[in-house]
UniProtKB/TrEMBL annotation:
InterPro entries: PDZ_sf. This is Pro-apoptotic serine protease NMA111. Residues 351-374 are annotated as: Disordered. It comes from the Eukaryota. It comes from Zooxanthella nutricula.
Length: 422
């Protein structure tokens, strides 16, 4: 057996895919044999395939399986919010009770047609496991990117409309009242390739489609092509990004959409967001509150106020002792904390403290006490439901200074201490 260490190179923001950079072994020998991914037709219900993977004890498992269905799965959300699979038409096997952790689905020639992942969730106070296949067509843009020279060092981004979609039967839409029913022309276009249409389930607040689409709308075309599956939508977004590389370098790419609402078609331009590798590479430990930029999973949960995310409160810290509540740090002494840089700026701030605004709307009063001499801070926070909190916090700079943790390109973490200006 050959064992190697590895580092995480890319974490897919939408799908359960992680790219690892395997360290070279002695003599630079390759790690195992390269897998061959199938570029042919995707797996369909009833197709036989080979499963090769590992069980929870790390033992190799191989068996013949059959595809039961290929459907859009509504993966359960979590609270507190955390990452979940989304925007995927998953492959479901007939024998979904296999006790495995991961694997691949191959054809008779050994070509990989899908990756197999397992997720856990709580249902009726019981922990449940759900296995599903991720079609290799989803991975093609990722594989093509890492084939190019310096692909491992060049950033890879995933375009996203930041909406949730679910299938709805065309026969059901045909039974709607006339003023809500989709136009016959669009029904004919959709029925030519599928028996379902894509219905918007949710729209991320502040996302590319906020104000352009709402729950209940039908997404029927992207970049001029009729869409009836998430896989086609994702492919069209990548194609749009490839056509407009200069625009994509700005973090968004314009995409033409057609949405049906109450029987009327509306054409709109959405600026799809280009999502980098998922995860956090920078933290602040501020008075025992572990802060990071608000992650996508929290913004997906609902509209959140501007601020930084409180991912954890350390035991025995000023934040824990003074009972700071909430999920988002909104402001300190009336100064907004919309980014981590603004939180770092608080440690070097010698400007007077801002008081609370009066009910008449007058400007906040200012305190003559310098930042270094204040005994307490007024901390304003909010939770993911929008409730606001305010607590006084007494700093302890000797034992709880401001620490900044950053992860470099090679994966190593560096800790830097920020001291208040003298």
């Amino acid at each position: 057996e050959d064992t190697r260490s590895a580092s995480v190179c890319f974490v897919h923001p939408l799908h359960s895919l992680v790219v690892l950079r395997v360290d070279p072994g002695e003599g630079g020998h390759a790690f195992g044999k390269a897998a061959s991914f199938c570029h042919g037709p995707a797996l369909e219900p009833g197709d036989p395939c080979e499963f090769i993977g590992m069980d929870p004890k790390g033992r190799a498992v191989a068996s013949k399986v059959q595809v039961q269905s290929v459907r859009m799965c509504n993966f359960p959300s979590h609270f507190p919010p955390r990452w979940r699979e989304s925007f995927l038409e998953a492959i479901v096997l007939a024998d979904n009770a296999m006790s495995v952790n991961t694997g691949v689905l191959c054809d008779a020639k050994g070509n990989v047609k899908a990756l197999y992942a397992v997720t856990t969730f709580i249902q009726e106070e019981e922990s449940e496991r759900l296995g599903y296949g991720i079609p290799c067509q989803i991975m093609q843009p990722l594989l093509e990117h890492f084939k190019i020279p310096k692909g491992l060092s060049a950033p890879f981004v995933v375009p996203s409309l930041e909406i949730g979609l679910e299938p709805v039967e065309l026969s059901r839409l045909a039974r709607l009242p006339a003023k809500l029913r989709p136009p016959a022309a669009w029904v004919a276009k959709l029925s030519a390739s599928s028996t379902t249409a894509l219905q918007v389930r949710q729209v991320m607040a502040g996302g590319p489609c906020d104000g352009l689409a709402c729950a209940g709308d039908l997404l029927v075309a992207v970049e001029g092509e009729v869409v009836t599956s998430c896989n086609v939508v994702e492919r069209r977004l990548f194609e749009a990004m490839g056509k407009r590389p200069a625009e994509a370098r700005g973090g968004t790419v314009a995409v033409q959409l057609v949405v049906l609402r109450q029987g009327k078609a509306t054409s709109a331009v959405a600026h799809a967001q280009l999502l980098p590798s998922d995860g956090t590479t920078r933290f602040l430990c501020w008075h025992g509150l572990l802060l990071r930029e608000t992650p996508r999973s929290v913004r997906e949960f609902g509209a959140v106020p501007g601020g930084v995310h409180i991912s954890q409160t350390l035991l025995g810290s000023p934040g824990e002792a003074d009972g700071v509540e909430g999920d988002i740090l909104v402001a300190v002494n009336g100064v907004p904390t919309r980014t981590l840089d603004e939180v770092v700026g608080l440690a070097h701030d010698s400007t007077p403290c801002r008081g609370a605004a009066s009910s008449s709307g007058e400007a906040p009063a200012k305190s003559a006490v310098p930042a270094q001499e204040r005994r307490h801070l007024r901390v304003e926070t909010a939770d993911s439901s929008g409730r606001r909190f305010m607590r006084p916090l007494e700093p302890d700079p000797l034992f709880w200074p401001l620490l900044e943790l950053t992860q470099g390109p090679a994966g190593a973490w560096v800790c830097e201490e920020h001291r208040a200006d003298a």
